[in-house]
UniProtKB/TrEMBL annotation:
InterPro entries: IFT74 (IPR029602). GO terms for molecular function: beta-tubulin binding. GO terms for biological process: intraciliary transport involved in cilium assembly. PANTHER family: INTRAFLAGELLAR TRANSPORT PROTEIN 74 HOMOLOG (PTHR31432). GO terms for cellular component: cilium; intraciliary transport particle B. It comes from Sarcoptes scabiei. This is Spc7-like protein.
Length: 513
């Protein structure tokens, strides 16, 4: 292998300083030619140079990461400070609002005692709200604990039921499933009935609230009526003492009469509305007494008495229908045997007659027998259809009876539930009766007060004068209406006469004379 000379080896375009590789010195101490050879040392130098560059970049990036981490920590601190400052600003704004309110009140010359009382009331309200929240929280914790305990109990019961169910036979499993389905159905019925009871209770509470509100409204209206009476008496005294003209007195009295009549009408309408509400409450209580639930309970009792009779009748009907089906089946088999015999006989006769005479010379007796056989076949088909229909009816009745037995198998439990419901209904009816008695007493008191007010007004001379003036005004208005009608009728007659004259003139002009 020949060795290449230095001049024939490849040169690089890079400088020696940039690569870090310098040519070796000569014996004289001078460096060799300033060129670099592309051999192993050259490439190692390049790799070292790149590694140094990468190390420098990593070092700079690490410094930048440290700076960024410091900045992020500083930003987090600033954020916390901003949040605290925002809270402080919110609190200070509320304080400023309260201070401004205090300044406004002090400008209005409001006393400090009232402001202190309001602040104390707000403090007490806040304390009460805190106590209520704590109580609600404790109740919620108790409910959660009870819920968990009930869940644990349910899981234990389910495990016990599963262990007992594994010991059952197939028949016992079927009975258990039937009982479980019945229990689910009854629980659904109980849930629906409880919902109905809740609705009735809510309705009762709503009625009580409306009754209380109406009673308060009636009291307020009575107070207004008494104040109105006092004001009317004052106005009457003023009218008597004043020396105004008769026309002004008449106008004032008429206006007062209209106002009083409107007020009396409004009071009467309110009393009638309260009476209507009482009547509605009484009708609802009567419906609640003699409602559908009482009728359902009585129907259940009657069905409980008639159930044994129904079962006896059912067994008798079942036995009779089974006997009928047996007889029908026997008749069908007999008719089928007879038909097979007759057909064999006919086929034999046909063969004999074909051999002797021919096919078309069949006697009348054979035709009659054929018709009889067709009739018997039709009868047998009808009997078969009847038997199928009766069988279907029997299956439907049996299915219905099974459903009824499932429905009324647990009558004692249903009876106990309905009795408990009746007791609750009676209690609610007694409460409604008590409320009605209270309302009646309130209504009687209101009627007495209204009658007393009415008698006072009737005895009052000013009121009598007002009534007489009102009657006079009504008569005047009536006369005015009659006069207007008469004026209108006269005007209409005049217009009619003028129209007729114009029509006559027009006709004369058309005719020519």
């Amino acid at each position: 292998m020949s060795i290449k000379s230095m001049s024939s080896r490849p040169l690089t375009s890079q400088s020696m300083v940039s690569t870090g590789l310098i040519a070796p010195k000569s014996a004289r101490g001078k460096t060799a030619l300033r060129r670099q050879i592309q051999d192993k040392s050259y490439f190692i130098g390049l790799i070292r140079m790149k590694i140094n560059e990468l190390n420098m970049e990593n070092h700079s990036l690490a410094k930048e990461c440290e700076i960024m981490a410091k900045e992020e920590a500083r930003i987090g601190v600033y954020r916390q400070k901003a949040e605290t400052l925002a809270r402080d600003l919110k609190n200070l704004t509320t304080d400023l609002l309260t201070y401004n309110e205090y300044v406004d009140r002090s400008r209005i010359d409001e006393q400090l005692s009232s402001i202190k009382e309001e602040t104390n009331e707000l403090k007490h309200e806040n304390e009460a709200i805190i106590v209520n929240l704590e109580n609600d929280y404790t109740k919620l914790r108790e409910l959660e604990s009870t819920w968990k305990a009930n869940d644990n109990k349910l899981n234990e019961y389910n495990k016990i039921i599963a262990s007992i169910k594994n010991r059952f036979n197939e028949a016992q499993i079927v009975e258990f499933n039937m009982a479980q389905t019945m229990n689910n159905d009854l629980s659904k019925d109980c849930h629906l009935l409880e919902q109905e009871i809740g609705l009735w209770r809510a309705r009762k509470n709503a009625l009580e609230e409306t009754i209380i509100k109406e009673g308060n409204l009636v009291k307020i209206e009575l107070i207004k009526a008494f104040t109105k009476l006092h004001s009317l008496e004052k106005q009457k005294n003023k009218l008597l003492n004043s020396n105004d003209s008769e026309e002004n007195e008449r106008k004032n009295l008429l206006a007062q009469v209209k106002r009083d009549n409107n007020y009396i009408d409004s009071v009467q309408t309110k009393i009638n509305a309260s009476k209507n509400n009482l009547a509605e409450v009484e009708s609802e209580i009567e419906f609640y007494q003699d409602g559908d639930k009482w009728s359902k309970f009585s129907d259940l009792k009657q069905q409980e008495g008639k159930f044994s009779e129904f079962m006896n009748e059912y067994h008798q009907e079942k036995q009779s229908l089974l006997n009928q089906t047996e007889t029908i089946n026997n008749e069908i088999t007999d008719t089928a045997n007879k038909l097979s015999r007759f057909l064999k006989y006919l086929n034999g006769i046909k063969q004999i007659r074909d051999d002797e005479i021919g096919v078309h010379d069949v006697p009348s007796k054979m035709i009659i027998q054929k018709r009889q056989l067709e009739l018997e076949i039709n009868r047998s088909m009808q009997l078969k259809e009847k038997s199928d229909a009766t069988q279907n009816l029997l299956t439907e009745k049996i299915a219905k009876l099974k459903e009824d037995t499932k429905m009324y198998s647990n009558i004692d439990q249903m009876k106990s539930k309905m009795e408990n419901k009746l007791i609750r209904l009676k209690q609610s009816i007694e409460e409604h009766k008590r409320l009605i008695a209270e309302l009646k007493s309130v209504n009687d008191n209101l009627n007495q007060q209204f009658s007393a007010v009415q008698t006072k007004l009737e005895k009052d001379e000013g009121y009598q004068k007002i009534l007489s003036l009102e009657e006079q005004l009504a008569s005047i208005l009536k006369i005015n209406v009659e006069l207007q009608e008469s004026d209108n009728s006269e005007m209409i007659n005049e217009i009619k006469a003028s129209v007729l004259d114009t029509v006559k003139k027009y006709n004369q002009s058309l005719i020519g004379f």
